[in-house]
Amino acid sequence: MRCLGIDYGERRIGLSFGDEIGVATPLPALTEVSVAERFAKMTEIIHQRKITDLVVGYPYNMDGSIGFKAKEVDLFIEKLWSLFQLPTHRIDERLTSDEASKHLKKGRDDEFRRSGKLDSMSACLILQDFLDQRNDFLNFNEGGAE
Description:
The protein is α/β, with parallel strands linked by helices. 47% of the residues lie in helices and 19% in strands. The longest helix has 25 residues, at 117-141.
């Protein structure tokens, strides 16, 4: 399994990579001006890294309901499917941006947002959550639960 973690945004798309080892690592965010350029770059990454699964942060509302932003992500996921036909996993991304920004040095928040580094840190948290859930499931099914 070779996963691409994705934190979708209208202007920037944060990315991360993870495989069987179970550790998510950030990749440079897609910050290209046009949507077409961002998808072209994502296509390149998917082919270069031989991605088998996409893991997309899903923005549930704090009460667990699905709002406007989640519907935007649903359309993005439909576009991903039409382009790549890869298994796509939705992972709850509530508070990942807040968690990612905790690791930034004071005063650098704006710089990290513009560069897409914050988005890729969020994608890393999203993907790590998926990998941890998957590993917990596999360990449980292999008799690892006590």
